[in-house]
TrEMBL record, chain A:
Keywords from the named record: Acyltransferase, Lipid metabolism, Pyridoxal phosphate, Sphingolipid metabolism, Transferase
Domain (Aminotransferase class I/classII large) ranges: 110-470
Protein's UniProt name: serine C-palmitoyltransferase
Family: Belongs to the class-II pyridoxal-phosphate-dependent aminotransferase family.
Reaction(s) catalysed (UniProt annotation): L-serine + hexadecanoyl-CoA + H(+) = 3-oxosphinganine + CO2 + CoA
InterPro entries from the UniProt entry: Aminotransferase_I/II_large, AON_synthase_class-II, PyrdxlP-dep_Trfase, PyrdxlP-dep_Trfase_major, PyrdxlP-dep_Trfase_small
Domain of life: Eukaryota
Membrane-topology descriptor: Single-pass membrane protein
EC nos: 2.3.1.50
Subcellular location: Endoplasmic reticulum membrane
Enzyme superclass (EC): transferase
Pathway: Sphingolipid metabolism; Lipid metabolism; sphingolipid metabolism
Keyword ATP-binding in record: no
TrEMBL record, chain B:
A single BP term in Gene Ontology: sphingosine biosynthetic process
Endpoints of the signal sequence: none
GO molecular function, one term: serine C-palmitoyltransferase activity
Keyword Membrane among UniProt keywords: yes
Catalysed conversion reaction: L-serine + hexadecanoyl-CoA + H(+) = 3-oxosphinganine + CO2 + CoA
Organism in which the protein naturally occurs: Musa acuminata subsp. malaccensis (Wild banana)
Domain Aminotransferase class I/classII large: 103-462
Transmembrane feature ranges: 6-23
A single Gene Ontology CC term: serine palmitoyltransferase complex
Record CDD domains: KBL_like
Cofactors: pyridoxal 5'-phosphate
Entry similarity comment: Belongs to the class-II pyridoxal-phosphate-dependent aminotransferase family.
Descriptive protein name: serine C-palmitoyltransferase
Amino acid sequence: MASAVMNMTTAALDWVSVAFDAPLARAVVFGVHIDGHLVVEVLLVAVILFQLTRKSYKPPKKPLTEKEIDDLCEEWVPEPLHPSISEDMKAEPPTLESAAGPHTIIDGKEVVNFASANYLGLIGNEKIIDSCVSSLEKYGVGSCGPRGFYGTIDVHLDCEERIAKFMGTPDSILYSYGISTIFSVIPAFCKKGDIIVADEGVHWGVQNGLHLSRSTVVYFKHNDMKSLENTLEKLTRGNKQAEKIRRYIVVEAVYQNSGQIAPLDEIVQLKEKYHFRVILDESHSFGVLGNSGRGLAEYYGVPVEKIDIITAGMGNALATDGGFCTGSVRVVDHQRLSSSGYVFSASLPPFLASAAVSAVNYLEGNPSVLTSLRSNIALLWKGLSDVPGLTIGSHPLSPIVFLKLKKSTGSSKGDLELLNNIADRMLKEDSVFIVSTKRSVLDKCRLPVGIRLFVSAGHSESDIRKVSDSLRRVATTTLAEHL
Amino acid sequence: MVRLPYLTALTTLFSYGLLFAFGQMRDFFRKLIDWSKSKGKDLKGYAPICLGLEDFYTRRLYLRIQDCFSRPIASAPDAWIDVVERYSNDHNKTLHRTSNTTKCLNLGSYNYLGFAAADEYCTPLVIESLKKYSASTCSVRVDGGTTNLHTELEELVARFVGKPAAILFGMGYVTNSAIIPALVGKGGLIISDSLNHNSIVNGARGSGASVRVFQHNSPSHLEEVLREQIAEGQPRTHRPWKKIIVIVEGIYSMEGELCNLPEIIAVCKKYKAYTYLDEAHSIGAVGKSGRGVCELLGVDTADVDIMMGTFTKSFGSCGGYIAASKEIIQYLKHTCPAHLYATSMSPPAVQQVISAIKVILGEDGSNRGAQKLASIRQNSNFFRSELQKMGFEVLGDNDSPVMPIMLYNPAKIPAFSRECLRRNVAVVTVAFPATPLLLARARICISASHTREDLMKGLDVISKVGDLVGIKYFPAEPPKHVEQDKKTL
């Protein structure tokens, strides 16, 4: 047995050694005989190389089974749709029982109204109401369709022409709601990859537009031209790509959140130096600033062609609703197809468009209303100069007089409580209706809160004196512990 | 569902290809001509406000048929309108108004219950409120913009829709764009129907939440998406979602279809997702008493978390509302930016809605509301069945007042529109980008103020134009009297 195995092993070994030393193909490559063992060595090297190129071992991914998904769905608990309702959420604003003019009726009492942005006193104007009545009788209330589908009524086209003529621009486009104007215009022109430099105090409508545009947004310090220049310098220095992308500066003429006025002449200088385009929101300055109410450009003496896009809401000086945007023909035509708030929404009710036309006609025919507004603002400034605990933070010409607390409580919630206290007491005790700034949690603006007084050309001197006396009295008592 | 014949798809693609080729050729020549003429002036150093390819569709395709859109009218958008004639001196690039008008049958405005023109009950009340409250309050709701009318309307809307409380906004588009960010933010998930309106898409994008789309009106696909998303969690971190909201519409305006509401609600309840129903086109127009798709499909309003609607379509006014539980409305009144920063709704418009709802509910002392609701249902069903008998491809469900007629080919869009206008019928045609590229259509909106004669005239004209343009894709049913003759024989 053993010898048979031994014989077989020796036979096998002999065979292997023969195979190893058998000259293959009788070839001589570089002076080396190709023998059997070379084949084995080459195969071994090949196997080693193959193993080296394989990836490390990973266990294969197993998708979740149906049962596991069922379990996960069972376990998942969503948050409630709304957070718990706190006491300050339950507060309701006062209800008006008559038109929101300089005097209005709240709870059966007549109060002096400083909460409506009725800058030219056009609420209750006979001519405007007459034009609205004839419009209502002819066209009904709503326009029942978007602009593209028989929602364009001839009053809309008349209104657009009138506004363009008034502003001195080639064309204008009408939107059906004030706040939707700016957040439809910005995404129509600014796309992903563009650069926008915006003031940090812009209101929510502008912030929403900037967010929807998906462009790169850089904020500069509120109304600080040095900060703006540094930002523009940083963005364009040595940046060759900057030539090919669109660049915009977004500012408001009169800031809702602070009452400051943007220095347009410096902005236009900077824009020309660094090749940016300007988008200007004139909601609170149209019909207020400038010798004939044509807005910020007229006030600073800047030719209106230098501002690329002007938008404004008509819910303030013009005492109607809706908004418009004006600029060059290219700017306006582009919006007719690519501005979502224009294309996908019903158009402005016709009676509001005819109210806008009458308001612009009135403004053009009675520029003296602007002088009364300015004298009212100056009178109010004088009356508020010695109110304890509050200081005026707005520009002397701004129709929004913004009062800040001299010493903040440390949190905007605490500040707001004090200010709301003052406003409530003034309404109850002195029949003066004023409001504090309300901020949404979605608002990114971090400017201080305060009290906003909307001055109107319809206020009389006694109204202004009443509000300053009342404010002085209530602030002294309410802020006494705080000071 | 759209059944696109193979041959039609080929010819449509060919037409678009031809238009595209011509457009590119013209762009090429335009570039040559502009390069030979020196340009620049004050645009040096500025990137163009519109890059070449972005508005290619506008310049080369849309401008050719621009006269079919944005037609101005010189009367109320009632059953018959005065369409202003326009002319162009430069091949449709700019259009100028004339002072001539043509009286046309209006099959395009959203005037479902006929409140568009001056109404005998509503208009005197509206004028009275205009004289009392003036055209605008010039103030936001939380400051000095809330009048008696606003509070009255909020209670009335809540009662009409069947929810505990409601909140108003001055524009329907802004309602969606400003509410969705207030309800769900980063870390939440929005699952929306693939054919949802642009305002919902904008609101979802503005909220910062993740967005997923499910196949149009398909509860099974919705279930699949929900299961997958809950199991996966947030992208990359795999943390569980904070909340999930499913957004659907009552009637889809481009399809005329009703939402598959009962099944979608059942799926959402099973997976604890919140539902948001946008009833822009269905409130006031469907349902036995006009209360919308919930009434029509027998869904309890307590099962839908948030119901949104607009006043533009059925009530002849402007603005939108949200109806939900008291706590949600209180929270929204505190946070929603449209409530805190936007001018409040115009008081005459509020009064119009109040009067319109009172008419619908019958609280004005007459039965005009019931008549209007019956009228719109009968009109829609009659019109749709007649069109289908003629061989047109009509989309949409029964009872829905919106009926799209498929055109497909881009050349048929201006042909249909202009031929109908020549015969004094005003229709709306919709093409890309509001619809998919190959599925252009003409959309008919029926109103309660259309009489039987109006509808017969409309059918007659559409049939003639349909033969001329060649859009009767299905075989027409033989008319009834032929069958009777066969019987007698």
